[in-house]
Amino acid sequence: MTIDLDTPYPLTDAQVAQFRRDGFIKLKQVFDAETLRRYGAEITRLTIALNTQTVPLAERSTYDRAFLQVMNLWEQGGAAREFVFGRRLAGIAAALLQVDGVRLYHDQSLYKEPGGGITPAHADQYYWPVDSDRTVTAWVPLQAVPQDMGPLAFFAGSQHVEFGRDLGISDESERAITAAMEAHGFPVIDAPFDLGEVSFHLGWTFHRAGPNRSRRPRSVMTVIYMDRDMRLKAPENHMQQSDRERWCPGAEVGAVIDTPSNPVLFERAA
């Protein structure tokens, strides 16, 4: 019997408190091997088919060596849409954010090739034109991620630090943010992921990943959730302007981001 995508996950009060303190959490047995095999095969197929990267790995920038990425696989329908719209992940997101419901911001597959480089330290919300910190990313490995494959690593408690929030993913962000985290004494939690283990991190939690030194690709699916009542803010950089146009089409500054591209994926029962 596989884990249904809509079956609630038994999250505890202690886990919610841990997430609030650290800005991230890793949860075991969110999915089983059969579920990951079924949906992972289609997600990986779409990622490879839709990816537009043609430059050899050795000739790419630091950012482009980090992974191949394809956004909004849910728009392809089928198994990818089923996965992204699953209430199990969305319910965890709502509980961790302590909100009544969550919307989709967008999804993103991340395929770190064998020999792929580091994912530089950064905070995701640098890219997002949203007016609160009630955002969370579910990072779902489609296989186990041993240390040599480059698991996601987190600077615990860093969601409260404003330094570095104006830096996109780059060599500069890796140097400056890592130095700032060390100066503040935030521990970096860098450990393998078991099969079925999923992490959730806030939009302002700083994180990074090592290179893929293995001979296998590291396939990951991510789903980014935001508070159901999230409002669009005026973009503060060109990346936020691009995100507004791409992921929140038709949303108005100051209004709830209620568009066909941002459906509500989970609401608590009244």
Automatic annotation (TrEMBL):
GO terms for molecular function: dioxygenase activity. Keywords: Dioxygenase, Oxidoreductase. Its cofactor is Fe(2+). InterPro entries: Phytyl_CoA_dOase-like (IPR008775). Coiled coil: none annotated. This is Phytanoyl-CoA dioxygenase family protein.
